[in-house]
Amino acid sequence: MESPISLKLSVIVPIFKAEDYLEACIESILSQGVDNMELILVDDGSPDRCPEICDRYAAADPRVVVVHKRNGGLSAARNTGIDMARGEYLAFCDSDDFIAPGTYLPAIEALDQFPDIEAVQFPITERYNTPEQFERRVPSPVTVVGGDNVFRSWQTEGDVVTGYIINKVYRRRLFDTLRFRDGIYYEDRYFETDLFPMIRAMRIIPEGGYFYNVCPGSIVNSKLTEKHVASRVVADHYLSLAIERIGGLDERLSVLKCYIYYYYLKLGRYGNRKAILAKYDLSSEEIAVPSLKDLWRVLKYSSRKGLSLFTKVRKLLSKG
To answer: 213-240 b/e with 16+ CB inside 10 Å = b?
Structure first.
């Protein structure tokens, strides 16, 4: 059997209903100046012109690899790409986003130069082309050493590590056993909770950029359903256990406990909370009622956000 070709970078793009954005996404990746790479386009059963667009690029550029599969969701599509990837380094891009010129090469150079660096993060512009557009960029390179410190930086509001999978390049070994969870929303929160403590050192660089779009059909803009709310409870509970284990994030843990309980109370709109959580393998007995100490920490953590959350929890509690 022929051995796999050694490549420097694999970029995985899961694709579903993105025909208006896909060509710009693909072009932005192929124009990065990385010849020794593969672009893995995972057509997740998209019903529009996306499969045709993917095949056209594959026929024109040998770096493009396409797989057409039955629709299984974002996590399954990403996992398919991970299983196929042959690159020394690995990156993700969503099909409605795009990469700024000169982004991947500086990240690859940092990984080549520093053997202990296992992930490189580049700037991200959130919600581009909207009034809420916001850029996250460091003025000069920063290295966060130690998986617990990478995790804490992610969970410290305003710190350098951003809570995105997509604005980073990783060493492939991090994905030897790690995969995205199927069948639940907020899959990135699960993944980051598992991934970040594994990273021995992360380099944050000012070069390049990822432009993150929020489409009308995204979870952020969708009407909340039982699955949305239950997934939020389960994902945040999973994150809270990691925060307790790693330590040093008391204020963040208090805020999270209040949000978990708030969304747990909201589950009452959809039926029996205990039965709903059981479908996601979480017992309602594991959901802690926030203490007065937690609520006080929330108010100290952010007066505006804390007061808003405090009011929401109190209102739901008054309804039983």
So the answer is: bbeeeeeeeeeeeebbbbbbbbbbbbbb
Cα 20 from Cα 168, distance rounded (Å)? 24
Q: What is the DSSP letter of 175?
A: G
Fill in the DSSP letter of residue 240: H
Axis-axis angle for helices 22-30, 50-60 (nearest 10): 20
Is-contact 226 270, C-beta < 8 A?
yes
The structural domains of the chain, ordered by start, are 7-212 (3.90.550.10), 226-318 (no CATH)
pLDDT single digits (tens) 54-107: 999 999 999 999 999 999 999 999 999 999 999 999 999 999 999 999 999 999
User: Model-level pTM?
Assistant: 0.89
71, two tokens: 């629709």
| pLDDT, mean of residues 162-177 | 96
- How are beta strands 134-136 and 124-126 bridged, if at all? antiparallel
For the sheet containing 134-136, what is the strand order? 98-99, 210-212, 124-126, 134-136
